[in-house]
Amino acid sequence: MTINKMISSINLFRELRRLRKIGGKRHPMYDQNKFAKYFMGFAVALWVVYLIMFGFLFIGLFSEIFPSMEPYHMLNKGMLYLLMVDFIMRFAMTKLPVQEIKPFVLLPVGKNRVLRSYLVMTGLSGFNLIWMFMLVPFAFGTLFRYFGFVGVLGFLVGYWLLMLANNYWFLFCRTLMNQHILYVLVPIAVYALLLVGLLVPETNYIGNFCMELGEGFFLWEWQAYLGVIALVYGLFELCHALQKRVVYKELSKTEVVKKLKKVSEYKFLDRFGEVGEYMRLEIKLLTRNKVPRAQFYMGFAIMLMFSAALAFTDVYDGDFMRYFITVYNFAVLGVLVLSQTMSYEGNYLDGLMSRKESILNLLRAKYYVQCALLLIPLVIMILPITEGKISLLCALACFFLTSGFTFWTLMQLAVYNKLTINLNTKVTGKNTGGTFFQSMIIMAGFFLPVIILQVFTSLLSENTALLIILGIGLAFTLTHPLWLRNIYKRFMKRRYENMEGFRSSIMNN
Amino acid sequence: MITISNLKKCFGEKVAVNVKDYIISQGTMLGLVGNNGAGKTTLFRLILDLLQADEGEVHIDHVDVSKSEEWKQRTGAFIDDSFLIDYLTPEEYFYFLGRVFGLKKEEIDERLVPFTRFMNGEVLGQKKLIRDFSRGNKQKIGIIGAMLHRPSLLILDEPFNFLDPSSQSVIKHVLAEYNRETGATILVSSHNLSHTTDVCSRIALLENGVVIRDIDNSEHTAEQELESYFNVDFAEEAPAADTPQEDTHATEQPVAAEMAEQPATEQPATEESAE
Predict the structure, then answer these.
(1) How far apart are CA A132 and CA A243, in angstroms?
(2) How far apart are CA A438 and CA A38, in angstroms?
(3) Cβ separation of A350 and B82 shorter than 8 Å?
(4) Is residue A342 in some structural domain?
(5) Integer angstrom CA distances of residue A414 from A237, A410, B147
(6) Shortest Cα–Cα distance, B189 to chain A (Å)
(7) Which of A24-28, A140-144, A437-441, B261-265: highest mean pLDDT?
(8) If DSSP codes are grouped into helix, strand and coil, which group holds residue A339?
(9) Distance CA A113, CA A12 (A)
(10) Is residue A269 part of a domain?
(11) Are A212 and A283 members of one domain?
């Protein structure tokens, strides 16, 4: 690369970053996000405190359990576990960054350079540094006395490079999974193989390799760095190649228009009149559009996985986790869909708004479809019920707590969401920014029921507590016509502001 | 009947719509014309309560559109793709709309018949989702969707856009026929002066959000007046940059003469005019 090219790449990178920042500030939900960011900031601060605590805790814990080895050797040996946790955390805490490439397609700017710039941006994200809150105290507590500051620095740089590699590995998997949910098997297969390598004691080559790699970091061995840098570069290029393919596919819309083999009419919904029409619409929204469909499948897969884990393993035997998984199983599908209430409809909101009370009927339809979908986790829950892991009363209490309280919480977003989500584009498009406000409501939807469960079960006998929760859930469920109308009225009061937001964020398909 | 009173909408410093008093009586076919940014679509959105007015009100049949939803039952509109539910097939979309307005499947099928020529065999029975149709066919689906429940007020923004010449001709005929048969009020905006003046009995010319001319087109005489408004005379501007000064002077003469010869068909700005 010549000096000129390098300078223009840096300029392009700076320009794209500036555009992204402006995009964030002019985001239709900027005010809500700003408000929610304070709360999220508080949650992150708590997480940071936990990480610092873990950093100190691991020093003592490793010394006690493995007295013959230094704690840093043990951490290095388990580095893959750390990377796996990081990988899973990224699903919950980061979004697949969109490639805002459309405005540059016809400009004399190398499209590859735009793509690369966005990828570099993700590498420089602060999220890749979050583990430092754990690693810094750990390194100072264990390495400093032997290898000094230089050793600590080497250790931290090495781990940052590993997080960087994980960042691109995650992006690669996430991009694949957005194409088809079955690609979830790629990371599962990779981690399964790695786990086998780690857990088979006689051939723990992987564990030993990791230990040596970590040692290479704090000893500043060039081979260790070269290897990890090569890995980062390889994954970056892999990610780039994949995103390039996907971006061009989306831009050129090369997919052949498929004619529908069968046009489903869902005639059984006729009996519900106008609401039935909107229910039909909701089902088609979920089944005919890539983004909601992928979310639906993912929610379903997670639900199945946790139910099986709850039924057949002892991993989630603690009270908190048991309740959390039960609540999560019921809520996950609703959370994925209802948290986007109106954002999907933003694509055709003007049409809906020019019809009388269509939004009220839409909200009703969404609620009824989600309630019907709750039967799926109820059926899946038969597994842990028959295994005696949870009681039928617990399952019913969670069912109604979800159909009542959780859905009530999530559907409040219908009033505040004002960002159109494109139903089918995934990688290209405009940066829609983080929706912290949504995250906050989602967290409330997930955790408040668990907290309610915990509080009642700790104060009362389990059955009494579950009966009270069942009562709360039923009360919210039975009063749904009232609170749905209330949401509708509040939506109508904010309609101009919301419509403006939906309109300004709408993307061209 | 639509009554607009002191309606004002600004986007920042820019005044998008500023209409003092304007009445469109039932059965009128009104064409809204104006350059880009004149405020045509904004005015439509304000009439349809899709935007909040900074000042003033719009009443449809004496109902304030921002206070009640009753008028929606009698109104049909198509402004852009955001009116289309694009993951439905055209049939599903029409049935959805029809049922929302209380029509039965058979009635919907029956109401689609008059549009057969307009659809030209490219819309129904394709087993394709709306998002997979061409822009022109999407436009047709939107227009038909707006007319399906036979509204007494029909609002179409740029209905001739994306349509092939034959379809443009057909939709003109369909709209005129619909107006004649049902006595519906039809509001159409367009950049196509010829089509607008062909079908509309009244033309409102918008400039910077203000109705600067309200032209009676019952005798089909508005086109000439509109042409004179919209025609930018390049001869007046070009020589200043490209030709010597004396040539400029030479070319200005005929233009001035042409201007003087224009028929005085213009009415004064008729913002406050009412039928």
Answers:
(1) 29
(2) 13
(3) yes
(4) yes
(5) 40, 8, 29
(6) 18
(7) A140-144
(8) coil
(9) 8
(10) no
(11) no
Q: What is the pLDDT of residue B249?
A: 38
Average of per-residue pLDDT across A405-412:
92
What whole-number distance in Å separates Cα of residue A371 and Cα of residue A267?
Answer: 19
Task: Tell me the two tokens of residue B211.
Answer: 């109705």
Q: How far apart are CA A128 and CA A139, in angstroms?
A: 17
| A419, A500: one domain | yes
Is the pLDDT at A91 greater than 90? The verdict is no
Q: Give the span between the Cα atoms of B190 and B175, in whole angstroms.
A: 14
- Number of continuous H segments (helices) and E segments (strands) in chain B: 10, 10
Together in a domain, A229 and A368: no
A212 CB within 8 Å of a chain B CB: no
- State ipTM: 0.78
CB pairs under 8 A between A and B: 77
Residue B258's pLDDT is 37
Query: Looking at residue B159, what is its pLDDT?
Result: 94
Domains of chain B: 2-261 (3.40.50.300)
What is the average pLDDT across B24-51?
A: 93
- pLDDT tens sequence across A152-190: 999 999 999 999 999 999 999 988 887 777 888 898 889
Examine the fold and report which residue of A220, A252, A284 is the final residue of a domain before the chain moves on.
Answer: A252
Count other Cβ atoms within 10 Å, centred on residue A377.
Answer: 26
A137: pLDDT strictly greater than 70: yes
| CA-CA-CA-CA dihedral for A81, A224, A94, A303, to nearest 10 | -30
Residue A138 lies in a domain: yes
Query: Could you tell me the two tokens for A44?
Result: 């992150």
User: What average pLDDT is seen over chain B?
Assistant: 84
**What is the pLDDT confidence band of residue A61, given thresholds at 50, 70 and 90?**
confident
Looking at the fold, whether A289 and A389 belong to one and the same domain comes out as yes
Residue B102, Cβ neighbours under 10 Å: how many? 11
Which of A214, A220, A174 is closest to A74 using CA atoms? A214
Q: Which domain holds residue A211?
A: 3-252
A478 and A417 in a single domain? The answer is: yes
Asked whether residue A247 falls in the same domain as residue A316, the answer is no
Please check whether residue A50 lies inside any domain of the structure: yes
Best mean pLDDT range from A245-254, A432-441, B262-271: A245-254
The minimal CB distance from A257 to the residues B82, B87, B128 is found for B128
CB contact under 8 A, B70 and A356: yes
Sheet hosting strand B153-157, strand order edge to edge: B75-78, B153-157, B185-189, B29-34, B202-207, B210-216
Strand order in the sheet with B2-11: B14-24, B2-11, B55-60, B63-64
Q: How far apart are CA B57 and CA B46, in angstroms?
A: 9
Question: Are residues A134 and A278 both part of a single domain?
Answer: no
Average pLDDT for chain A = 83
The predicted pLDDT at position A35 comes to: 60
What gap in Å lies between CA A169 and CA B87, rounded to an integer? 33
- Name the closest residue on chain B to residue A274, using Cα atoms: B100
A355 vs B contacts (CB less than 8 Å): 72, 100-101
SS3 of A138-191: the string is HHHHHCHHHHHHHHHHHHHHHHHHHHHHHHHHHHHHHHHHHHCHHHHHHHHHHH
Give the total number of structural domains in chain A.
2
Residues A144 and A225 in one domain: yes
Residues contacting B5, CB < 8 A, separation 6+: B20, B21, B56, B57, B58, B59
- pTM of the entire predicted model: 0.72
- B85 to chain A: nearest residue by CA? A348
Q: Is residue A437 within 8 Å of residue A416, measured between CB atoms?
A: yes
